[in-house]
């Protein structure tokens, strides 16, 4: 269906209404046939007006939308790599309900996250501290959809499914389940897959070191729900099925300076 199809259909209905009403006026018989023509014409006219009024235009092409955050994800990962940072991202819940992303030099999360500086160098532990790419998206979900992340395990998994399928509509089907200590999220019929392919063409490490808005949102939701720092353990793409699989690993208690109930 082209972008002009709804408008074309509406105008055809209005033209049909005009033709039916003109025919009713021309015959002027005043019987049940004329009444039927008048009712049909009125119905076509109302339907055409509603179609014009309610049409919101075509949505943004998913393939184009998928490419919007690609270069930003690659650039942050490149900057981190140039600084000698090789670890995967940790998403740490903070006392105010926000989430901070910490990318350590190696694999271990620093014990003390410090303040709001972008570089953590205290006690010989080095890491990069940034706002996750999902920060505006998470804020929007909270503002417009009153998103509240539950802490119960089953409710948390259901929350992930609802966000991906109903609120964001980025996948045809979402499966979130526990696998030991991990939470595995599978997005089947993932609509933003072209962005994944573009990022992974640069380096699959970008996915776990930084994370795109969707993957970082999944990690942030798990971090808030478990109240634990959460790492993007692994991301895989099934091109044939059009599926994205994200493995998230919540850690132990939140480090000093972060986590619900703790002061910074």
Notable traits:
single chain, 264 residues, alpha+beta, eight-stranded antiparallel beta sheet, 9 helices
Summarize the topology.
Layout: H1 5-27, H2 32-54, H3 62-67, H4 70-82, E1 90-93, E2 99-104, E3 119-120, E4 127-130, H5 135-145, H6 153-167, E5 173-179, E6 182-188, H7 193-202, H8 205-209, H9 213-226, E7 230-238, E8 243-250
Helix pairs in contact: 1-2, 4-7
3D architecture notes:
By secondary structure, this protein is an alpha+beta fold. Helix content is 45%, strand content 18%. The protein has nine helices and eight strands. The chain has an eight-stranded antiparallel beta sheet with strand order 3-4-2-1-7-8-6-5. Strand 1 and strand 2 (99-104) form a beta hairpin. Helix 1 (5-27) runs antiparallel to helix 2 (32-54) and helix 4 runs parallel beside helix 7 (193-202).
Structural class: alpha+beta
Whole-angstrom Rg: 26 Å
What profile does the largest beta sheet have?
A: 8 strands, antiparallel
Please trace the helix and strand order, writing H or E for each element: HHHHEEEEHHEEHHHEE
Oligomeric state of this protein: single chain
Quote the beta fraction. 15-25%
Q: Summed up, what is this model?
A:
The chain has helices at residues 5-27, 32-54, 62-67, 70-82, 135-145, 153-167, 193-202, 205-209, 213-226; strands spanning 90-93, 99-104, 119-120, 127-130, 173-179, 182-188, 230-238, 243-250. With 264 residues, it is an alpha+beta fold. Strand 5 (173-179) and strand 6 form a beta hairpin.
């Amino acid at each position: 269906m082209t972008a002009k199809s709804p408008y074309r259909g509406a105008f055809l209905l209005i033209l049909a209404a005009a033709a039916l009403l003109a025919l009713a006026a021309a015959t002027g018989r005043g019987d049940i046939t004329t009444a039927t023509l008048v009712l049909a014409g009125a119905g076509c006219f109302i339907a055409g007006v509603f179609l014009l009024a309610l049409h919101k235009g075509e949505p943004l092409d998913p393939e184009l939308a998928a490419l919007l955050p690609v270069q930003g994800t690659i650039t942050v990962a490149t900057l981190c790599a140039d600084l000698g940072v090789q670890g995967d991202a940790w998403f740490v819940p903070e006392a105010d309900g926000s989430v901070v992303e910490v990318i350590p030099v190696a694999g271990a999360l620093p014990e003390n996250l410090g303040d709001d500086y972008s570089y953590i160098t205290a006690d010989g532990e080095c890491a990069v501290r940034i706002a996750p790419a999902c920060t505006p998206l998470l804020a929007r979900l909270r503002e417009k959809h009153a998103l509240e992340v539950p802490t119960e395990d089953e409710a948390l998994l259901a929350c992930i499914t609802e966000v991906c399928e109903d609120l964001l509509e980025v996948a045809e089907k979402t499966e979130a389940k526990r696998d030991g200590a991990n939470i595995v999220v599978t997005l089947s019929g993932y609509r933003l897959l072209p962005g994944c392919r573009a990022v992974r063409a640069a380096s699959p490490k970008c996915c776990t070191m930084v994370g795109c808005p969707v993957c970082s949102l999944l990690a942030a939701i798990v971090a808030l729900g478990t109240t634990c720092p959460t790492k993007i353990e692994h991301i895989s793409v099934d091109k044939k099925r059009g599926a994205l699989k994200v493995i998230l690993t919540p850690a132990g208690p939140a480090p000093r300076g972060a986590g619900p109930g703790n002061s910074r």
